[in-house]
Fold:
Amino acid sequence: MKSQKAMCSSETHKLDSPNTGGNPKSGKCIVHSPLKSHPVVKFIPGGELSDLIPNLKKHFSGSTNYLEIRTPIKSIHCFRHPDDIKQIYTSPESSIQKPIFLLPRAKRIMRDGLFTNPGGEKWKVRRRPIQQIFTKSRSAIISEAVFGALDAMIKRWDQEDMARTSIDLDAELRVLTTDYFFRAFFSEVLEIDQLREVASKANFMARHFLDLSPVILPFPNNRKYVKTARWFDNFFHQKLANHIENENLDVVDQLLGLISSDDKGEWDMQTILNELYSLFFGMGNLACALTWSFYCLAKDQISYNSVEKEADSIGLSEKPMVCESAVIAHAFNESARLFPPVWGYARISTQPITIGGRVFPKNSILLPLGFFAQRHPDFWQDPEIFDSGRFALEGDTKIHHFAHYPFGGGPRICVGRHVATFVSQLIIGRVFREYRFELLNHENKGLHDIDLHFGFELAPKESLMFRITKRIKS
Structure:
């Protein structure tokens, strides 16, 4: 097992010092120096976002911690060093405000929910009560709905005899997490055909969330995007209108309770719908993260065997709070380090801000790139290698929070992160207990010999096909 490098707890940049690794026990500190000049990547609007990625990879594969994407309209400032990212996500000048004008497509599906809300006092008023719904203890209860969704999927897989064919595992996991969402949020069990339709449409929206062509242009994908957004509008309006309060007090019941307890006019049915959109499309990130976990484990037999052994030791009736498995959690964390489902979270500075020795004026677009920060060689030994065992050293060596932040950080950290943590472990544990997996279309390639789609989610460009076989237990 390869161990990770020790992390540095210092937040100070020594501007005249070279980049060094560090170990808290030796008193040394990881520092980095802003360069007098920096890489500039030019980008013409109308191109594809994926066109930028090779340039970003080229520059961030070395010692570069900052580069500028220059467009005819405005520059986007990209950051890789965890200290810089921590400052952006935690400083009052930059931690809350989002440059939503960069994402005109976002409001087509998330309206004015927490994700698209640019920030300010209105955002804080919305965030506080929703955070209370998704505390760690409440998230454990919300997560229990995944048991029913898993039972349904396993029954379906057993009936369809998946060993005779290949499956698109990402598509199956999106159906699973969609099923979980409606069980947990609406106490409703959708038919499989409807689940597949909803999951497929949501995946299309996520794939084209960051398309750079103006959505009003009459391109086929734009027309489909607008049409699908309207479909989701009608779908969720109907689901909310038909929702019946039940004794389980599901998530929608708790959201609707905000209206009755509101004496300032902050909450109404449209506001609830806006938040449901954000929460639902955020669930797609979980399916994407799970896909990467199964992919990475299929590529590493040692980790695969460890997870399988751990899964066998967890009883089927275990509840989320008592089945937190370190082995499964480490595997999920490591795959999310290499392939973070959301690869970059942008902010906009509300005041001038100095980051890494550089001064950025008010209204600068600041883009921390988790995809590169989580592979930073100053913070991870052999950063391109999948090694879930490196997280087992967390007790002795503190991981810099912004060298691994798959759920974001600062005031706008993912509100559903506890649910994602519980549900991911339950899904991986249960599925590994029931089946064996064989990757079919990338089995003879390296872990990183895969084309990536950098959209709303970091996803494989082509489907990952698996063969699954039922395990015979002694």
Summary: The radius of gyration is 22 Å. Residues 1-35 have pLDDT under 50 and may be disordered. DSSP finds 15 helices and twelve strands in the chain. The CA atoms of residues 201 and 409 lie 29 Å apart.
